[in-house]
Amino acid sequence: MVVGLAALLTGCGGEPRSVVATQLLDRQGYDAALRQSSRDYRWPADYRPDLDRLSGSSAPGSGEAALAGSERIILEIANSCAWYKTWDDARSRADHSSAEEALTVLEEVLPGYGPQNPDGRRYAREAASRARAGDPSLARQFTEANCDGVIAWDRTGTGADG
After folding, report:
1. CB under 8 Å to 110, separation ≥6 — which residues?
2. What gap in Å lies between CA 129 and CA 147, rounded to an integer?
3. How far apart (Å, rounded) are the C-alpha atoms in residues 39 and 103?
4. 3-state SS of the chain?
5. What was the pLDDT predicted at 90?
């Protein structure tokens, strides 16, 4: 066990790897990070997350901590939901311009989310491919599983980037 641990710490070349310090965020730090990070995302006009509710439902509890960066996972999910819903809504009302704008995000942005999750990236690519073909099944499956009843949307226009 000690040999395995030493190999893990030093790698194959035998030279020590630098240890990355893990930053933990309390509820207040998480909320601040979520709000700051939300500005890094492009949000469609009709679907901007209610950041008060998103933070309240995803932040660590009292006396608990979350890993710094975990707020980005939540925002990637919310942003994916926003763009899948925007595409599906635009498609349903035959708004080709808005559907195409959303489809561009589905194809070019969403597959880049979650670099640590190759299955999620494959899903995003397949959902975009099906959406391009007019099939909303994977976009709807994603929103039903991850968004509906979970993420509240700010309809005032002052949510994620306002």
Report:
1. 79, 80, 83, 124, 127, 128
2. 21
3. 21
4. CHHHHHHHHHCCCCCCCCCCCCCEECHHHHHHHHHHHHCCCCCCCCCCECHHHHHHHHCCCCCCCEECCHHHHHHHHHHHHHHHHHHHHHHHCCCHHHHHHHHHHHHHCHHHCCCCCHHHHHHHHHHHHHHHCCCCHHHHHHHHHHCCCCCCECCCCCCCCC
5. 98
Q: Which residues of the chain have pLDDT under 50?
A: 1-13, 162
Residue 100: per-residue pLDDT: 98
Looking at every residue in the chain, the average pLDDT score rounds to 88
